[in-house]
Backbone:
């Protein structure tokens, strides 16, 4: 944008929502120029609305000026979703971070999008309730961002992803109108359409969420395996036996060592892979649950099986598991975290393929993933100063996705498509499939101002050339 | 593909409004070609599964062709070790349940009349039953779909994995759209292991125990999979009413857990002044199926059944409102009060058929001015035109209209059937 136009745009924003809510100085904008996937470009402005009316005003002004609008939670997204790749205005929800109501009797809460995920569970705790989806980033990521990406997390295995917990939304559409949708309204499920739309359909300004009763009994177990493939086979077998624990997470040796160096949680350092199992529910079922899962694990090559003795140890193991990516950031120069899902019987084959691909590209790979869902997260380690390594990481990443698709899987289980995978999307969906999704976009955002260049591939029609992705996460960029 | 013209169309009429032909496509491609053809010619189409949920919504504003989807009824992939299944959506729910049962699995659809209802119909009708508090709604078990749009486009969404954020979650949009956006032809689900034990608990409610019993049930340590207060439905649902009706609970889980929970239930109900609880495991599945069927059972042409939504904490107040209105309009009222989900199912009826047309429309108006979220589940065809059918218009109706226009610009698919006349 011309600098005069930019000034005029900023002035109008200031008139509408106040000078203290509009940032335009390059040094202030730098933090809004990237997310945990990539460093991109400076937006024209960043705004900090205090309510839906502010958001509506921002959308109207951006609309009139033809400026892209990029909603942003905590910027922990791993696919470039919150990065203003085409400039425009970044809408931060840092000032909209309150719980608007918590209705314990009906187990629901209404929150603003800037609320940190974990803060909701903390507020619900005195009522014996908690919020189910717990992305590993839950201490820092926001519920608006979680809704935007349809975030999962370790407990998605039994509790489901965000979409299974969002009961209704307040949102601002492409024309700046403030609208409401609820699962209990009759009519099309707009709620389900907005969840996971990564900021491309509307700006979410309030979220109604389902809370759940805290399970009276929780047990966590650790099983050690010779390698990731064996551990994966055990997970496949547990699921095939019709057992759905609350979490089944795998970490390989590299990750365990990084995690232990920082957290000292008590993971076995010598194992090739560790399986973290959680079961939750009524105390009556715990013993039988442990026995059934333990037997399958042993029959599938578990070298050891140990139970966390108390809540403190359990919490320590979970803290370490959820801090795994950050811990790796302390020892690796940079890493590129992939996210793909395969049918659960295909896990051993998938991890085998990932290993082969990493070897072929001479890359070091760490694995820490939501195994029970078949949701893989290989972390490809590289040094961003080495161009060859960057190229290898990108090529290997694509090859891993292709391999997972060939196994009947898909290219994102929870992180989203964003900017990162939009050119990969046609590997999964036909042009008819994508055009059908595009019809929804046409309705919510006909001018394509909400988060442009995300999710949808750059059409051959406009002859856009694919920009080189810049995986730049790592080195504790966000922790 | 079979094409029938009258008189083969009688099962597909909405009152006076009958289609000029019924087509039964045997493949997705045939369906796509047929739809494209109708769309080009400006013929209006209504999709049929088992027809169990055709009581929902308005009669179509225009109606030329009925599309019977029941020939698309095959299991496409059953990866039971992955706990996933993909079926053609014209399959009956009974057939789906039987396939899953062979592997000790289920999908919590809670559909009524499973011998007739089809998977696609249950999804398109936005059906959700009493176990949704425990297992989620059908939409939550749905991991992928293929649909055919009005212009013949075949579009898929989701896939065969249980966790997926690849592209828009289109499947949610088709659920509950009542065939106004496209035909669901393929549905992929994640399945669940069948619980070890299933137990039904039924108890008569003596006078003035209704409220306390509901409160005690809501705070049970082990939550039942389904928990309802039933009033009436004597021929449809097991058990006998006391003065305040009866409790109908379903417990699912391990034997030890179900044993403990039913012990606790007995003492909780005892404390609420409910002396006797009948428990049974054998036949629990059948009893639960009868409960589900009751949602759609009509008393000849003399009753209308409503689904009245709201928060669980307001269930009793809502029930009181509906009871008062039924009394004021001289109608019999039978209810299912779903303690866990807050749903209130109300079947109002008149003994004399003359009273049906005289009284129910007035009741309908009063009901709608008292409560916002109401849908008719089933009504005599003769009354459909005089009932509001969908309750208060949703706040995002404008967006819904725009979606309809974008997916079906010519209004080919079930025109006028949906909310706000979509
Ligand atoms: C260490 C680490 C661990 C992680 N673990 C997990 C995990 O276990 N599971 C998982 O799913 N993800 C995980 N993630 C990824 C990330 O945390 C999630 O994608 C999260 O949901 C992003 O939330 P955020 O607040 O940071 O949103 P952002 O990154 O700021 O935004 C995410 C997307 O949502 C959109 N958005 C944000 N706010 C709104 C709004 N109000 N209205 C509309 N759209 C909006 C943005 O435009 C963007 O497309 C992890 C990330 C890190 C760094």
Residues:
């Amino acid at each position: 944008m011309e600098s005069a136009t930019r000034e005029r745009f900023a002035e109008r924003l200031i008139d509408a929502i106040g000078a203290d809510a509009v940032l335009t100085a390059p040094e202030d904008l730098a933090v809004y120029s990237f997310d945990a996937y990539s460093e991109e470009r400076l937006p024209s402005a960043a705004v900090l609305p205090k309510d839906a009316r502010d958001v509506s005003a921002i959308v109207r002004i951006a609309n009139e000026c033809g400026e892209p609008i990029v909603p942003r939670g905590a910027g922990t997204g791993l696919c470039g979703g919150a990065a203003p790749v085409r400039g425009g205005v970044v809408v931060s929800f840092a000032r909209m971070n309150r719980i608007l109501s918590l209705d314990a009797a009906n187990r629901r809460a209404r929150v603003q999008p800037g609320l940190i995920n974990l803060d909701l569970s903390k507020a619900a705790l005195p009522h014996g309730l908690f919020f189910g989806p717990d992305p590993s980033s839950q201490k820092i990521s926001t519920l608006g961002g979680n809704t935007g990406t349809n975030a999962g997390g370790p407990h998605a295995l039994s509790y489901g992803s965000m979409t299974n917990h969002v009961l209704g939304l307040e949102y601002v559409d492409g024309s700046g109108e403030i609208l409401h949708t609820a699962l209990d309204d009759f009519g099309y499920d707009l709620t389900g359409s907005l969840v996971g739309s990564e900021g491309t359909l509307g700006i979410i300004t309030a979220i109604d969420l389902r809370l759940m009763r805290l399970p009276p009994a929780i047990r966590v177990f650790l099983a050690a395996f010779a390698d990731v493939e064996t551990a994966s086979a055990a997970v496949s077998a547990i699921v095939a036996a019709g057992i759905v624990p609350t979490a089944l997470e795998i970490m390989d040796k590299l990750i365990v060592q990084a995690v232990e160096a920082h957290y000292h949680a008590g993971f076995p350092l010598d194992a090739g892979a560790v399986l973290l199992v959680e079961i939750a529910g009524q105390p009556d079922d715990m013993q039988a649950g442990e026995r059934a899962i333990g037997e399958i694990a042993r029959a599938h090559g578990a070298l050891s099986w140990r139970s966390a003795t108390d809540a403190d140890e359990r919490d320590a193991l979970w803290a370490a598991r959820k801090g795994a990516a950050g811990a790796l950031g302390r020892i690796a120069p940079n890493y590129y975290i992939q996210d793909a899902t395969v049918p659960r019987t295909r896990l051993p084959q998938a991890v085998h393929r990932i290993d082969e691909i990493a070897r072929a590209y001479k890359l070091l790979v760490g694995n820490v993933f939501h195994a029970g869902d078949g949701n893989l997260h290989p972390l490809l380690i590289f040094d961003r100063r080495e161009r060859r390594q960057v190229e290898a990481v990108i090529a290997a990443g694509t090859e891993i996705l292709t391999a997972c698709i060939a196994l009947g899987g898909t290219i994102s289980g929870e992180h989203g498509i964003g900017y990162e995978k939009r050119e990969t999307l046609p590997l999964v969906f036909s042009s008819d499939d994508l055009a059908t999704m595009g019809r929804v976009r046409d309705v919510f955002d006909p001018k394509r101002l909400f988060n442009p260049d995300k999710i949808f591939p750059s059409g051959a029609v406009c002859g856009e050339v694919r920009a080189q992705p810049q995986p730049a996460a790592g080195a504790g960029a966000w922790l | 593909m079979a094409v029938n013209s009258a008189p083969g169309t009688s099962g597909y009429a909405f009152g006076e409004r009958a289609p000029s032909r019924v087509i039964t496509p045997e493949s997705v491609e045939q369906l796509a070609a047929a739809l494209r053809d109708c769309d080009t010619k400006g013929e209006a189409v209504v999709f049929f599964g088992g027809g169990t949920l055709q009581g929902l919504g308005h009669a179509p504003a225009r109606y030329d062709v009925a599309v019977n989807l029941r020939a698309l009824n095959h299991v496409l992939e059953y990866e039971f070790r992955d706990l996933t299944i993909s079926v053609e959506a014209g399959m009956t729910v009974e057939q789906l349940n039987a396939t899953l049962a062979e592997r000790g699995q289920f999908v919590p659809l809670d559909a009524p009349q499973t011998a007739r209802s089809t998977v696609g119909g249950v999804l398109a009708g936005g059906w959700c039953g009493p176990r949704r508090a425990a297992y989620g709604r059908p939409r939550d078990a749905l991991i992928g779909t293929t649909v055919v749009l009005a212009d013949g486009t075949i579009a898929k969404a989701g896939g065969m994995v249980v966790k997926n954020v690849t592209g828009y979650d289109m499947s949610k949009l088709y659920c509950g759209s009542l065939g106004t956006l496209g035909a669901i032809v393929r549905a992929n689900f994640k399945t669940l292991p069948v619980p070890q034990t299933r137990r039904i608990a039924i108890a008569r409610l003596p006078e003035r125990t209704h409220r306390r019993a509901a409160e005690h049930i809501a705070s049970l340590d082990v939550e039942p999979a389904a928990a309802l207060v039933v009033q009436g439905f004597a021929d449809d649902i097991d058990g006998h009413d006391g003065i305040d009706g009866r409790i109908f609970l379903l417990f699912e889980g391990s034997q030890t857990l179900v044993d403990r929970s039913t012990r606790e239930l007995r003492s909780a109900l005892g404390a609420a002044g409910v002396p006797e609880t009948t428990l049974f495991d054998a036949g629990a599945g059948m009893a639960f199926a009868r409960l589900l069927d009751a949602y759609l059972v009509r008393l000849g042409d003399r009753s209308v059944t409503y689904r009245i939504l709201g928060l669980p904490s307001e269930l009793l107040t809502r029930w009181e409102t509906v009871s008062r209105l039924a009394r004021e309009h001289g109608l019999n009222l039978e209810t299912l009060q779903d303690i866990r989900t807050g749903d209130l199912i109300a079947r109002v009826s008149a003994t004399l058929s003359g009273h049906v047309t005289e009284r129910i429309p007035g009741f309908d108006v009063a009901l709608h001015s008292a409560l916002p979220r109401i849908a008719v589940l089933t009504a005599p065809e003769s009354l459909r035109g005089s009932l509001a059918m969908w309750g208060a218009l949703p706040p995002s109706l404008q967006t819904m209209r725009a979606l309809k226009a974008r997916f079906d610009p010519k209004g080919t698919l079930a025109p006028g059937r949906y909310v706000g006349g979509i």
In short: Chain A touches chain B through 76 residues (CB under 8 Å). Chain A has five domains: 3-92, 99-213, 217-324, 332-406, 424-467.
